[in-house]
Amino acid sequence: MKTKLVAVAGVLLSLFILNLNVAISAEQRGTAKEAETLVKKAISFLKANGKAKAFAEFGNKQGQFVDRDLYIFVYDLNGKCLAHGQNPKMVGNDLIDMKDPDGKLFVKERVEIAKTKGKGWQNYKFTNPLTKKVEEKSAYVEKYEDLIVGSGIYKQ
Q1: For the chain, what are the domain ranges?
Q2: pLDDT tens for each residue of 107-124
Q3: pTM for the model
Q4: What's domain 31-154's superfamily in CATH?
Q5: What pLDDT score does 32 carry?
Q6: Looking at per-residue confidence, does 128 or 104 come out higher?
Q7: Are the beta carbons of 59 and 91 closer than 8 angstroms?
Q8: Three-class SS of the chain
Q9: In what order do the strands lie in the sheet with 81-84?
């Protein structure tokens, strides 16, 4: 009987820890409103400080434009990555033909959103910097002068 109680207690403790991990994981994810707010903050920073200083700050993983799984990315209107808050290897590259794992041309799509609507949301798959796994993502992008400034949320 004592062995069964210990086993049941172990299972209950494991379930509690698993639920706690899920709650912590949800708290580590940014929201759509936070992503939009971060983009608007980034555009204000660009206006006040210029491209060179802004791009350096956007690429700083410990800077003010990285919050949990939220970060800023910037492209020109031809699909060249100018700043990226999580993957500096993308910066300086023409990524207009970059595809997500499903073959979606997501950089081309964000260029079209910027050129035709000025701002908007898009869905695609991308690697989450917290989990290191490819996940569903929704990104908010906004055109500012000749730039596309964006941030996105990862969906569970």
Answers
A1: 1-29, 31-154
A2: 999 999 999 999 999 999
A3: 0.82
A4: PAS domain (3.30.450.20)
A5: 96
A6: 104
A7: yes
A8: CHHHHHHHHHHHHHHHHHHHHHHHHHHCCCCHHHHHHHHHHHHHHHHHHHHHHHHHHHCCCCCCCEECCEECEEEECCCEEEEECCCHHHCCCECCCCCCCCCCCHHHHHHHHHHHCCEEEEEEEEECCCCCCEEEEEEEEEEECCEEEEEEEECC
A9: 81-84, 73-76, 147-154, 134-144, 119-127
